[in-house]
Design a protein that fits this description.
Layout lengths: L6 E5 L4 H12 L3 E6 L2 H15 L3 E5 L5 H13 L3 E6 L14 H29 L2 E6 L12 H21 L4 E6 L4 E2 L2 H4 L13 E2 H13 L4 E2 L6 H14 L21
Parallel strand pairs: 1-2, 1-4, 2-3, 4-5, 5-6, 6-9, 7-8
Helix pairs in contact: 1-2, 1-7, 3-4, 4-5
Bound molecules: NADP nicotinamide-adenine-dinucleotide phosphate.
Length: 269
């Protein structure tokens, strides 16, 4: 019999935030498809969740920067009617200064944090729209709001995730498909070691546990938030930020430059 909660496909489920999503969604009764490169870790998580939560858990070993692997996940999202939720989470950070960064590393980061996220969201949007139901959760970062933090390309990839989510929510309104962007601050996961910045260098007062982060993200999801900022005490601050952005809209595209530039205007012949 099919599971009324549906199946959640989680990328980057082998550790950190993705592994906690797997745990929480299994306990909510979702069947799971767990994807990442480390199959042994995925299998250990799958075995535990099958035993503890009694849900069905499938493991797909996939490097989402590899097109053939990515296509397998895209195909499932388009064609498997049981999938109702995508947690678009796999990602990495690169913290070296821009001018000193290896261009191939930048390229790889963009493939992981932008290209794979976009293609998976695209496949989910297509499948969910046809089926008239589903939700896409994209894991961004507060760094995408803060160019001053100095994580140039990582931050830019996460700004992309926020824009993609907001724009997609607009486009899919009415199709029965929900979108949420989750913007974690510093979170206690392996991402720090993997990016070469020891977690011991992150001040404890700004470092959230991944369990708390995911529980807050799910509370934001349940509350219908489009953008969830787990650290932000006052939701009104985000609404004011959005209102300031929207206030620009009537003046973003005009027949002539603004008078303050003193440009000589060209009238049609
Ligand atoms: N931790 C933070 O401070 C923080 C803050 C803001 C946003 N985030 C975002 O949260 C998300 C999850 O990161 P995390 O903090 O939980 O870090 P993490 O523990 O390092 O987890 C990253 C996950 O992505 C998977 N992954 C990495 N490269 C992959 C690839 N090429 N193909 C498939 N899977 C890949 C990893 O699994 P395998 O190695 O097994 O493939 C792992 O499961 C990322 O998008 C990150 O940018 C994290």
């Amino acid at each position: 019999m099919s599971n009324p909660k549906g199946t959640a496909l989680i990328t980057g489920a082998s550790s950190g935030i993705g592994a906690i999503y797997a745990d929480r969604l299994a306990r909510r009764g979702h069947d799971l498809i767990l994807a990442a490169r480390d199959e042994a870790r995925l299998n250990a998580i799958a075995e535990r969740l099958r035993a503890e939560a009694g849900v069905s858990v499938e493991v797909i070993s996939a490097d989402v920067t590899n097109r053939a692997d990515l296509r397998v996940l895209e195909q499932r999202l388009r064609d498997d009617a049981a999938i109702q939720l995508l947690i678009n989470n796999a990602g990495a950070a690169l913290l070296s200064p821009f001018a000193a960064a290896d261009p191939d590393d930048l390229d790889k980061l963009i493939q992981l944090n932008v290209t794979a996220v976009t293609r998976l969201a695209n496949a989910a949007a297509a499948g969910f729209s046809v089926r008239g139901a589903g939700a896409i959760v994209n894991i961004g970062s507060v760094v995408g709001l803060a160019p001053e933090f100095g994580n140039t390309v990582y931050g830019a990839t996460k700004a992309f995730v926020l824009y993609l989510s907001q724009s997609l929510a607009h486009e899919l309104a009415g199709a029965g498909v929900r979108v949420q962007a989750v913007l974690p601050g510093a979170t206690r996961t392996e991402i720090w070691e993997r990016s070469g910045r020891g977690i011991e260098n992150v001040p404890a007062e700004i470092l959230m546990d991944a369990d708390e982060l995911v529980d807050a993200a799910l509370a934001g999801f349940d509350a219908g938030e489009l953008v969830t900022l787990p650290s932000l005490p006052d939701a009104e601050d985000w609404r004011a930020f959005e209102a300031a952005r929207l206030a620009l809209q009537p003046n973003l595209s005009k027949r002539h430059p603004a008078a303050r530039y003193g440009v000589k205007l060209v009238e049609p012949a």
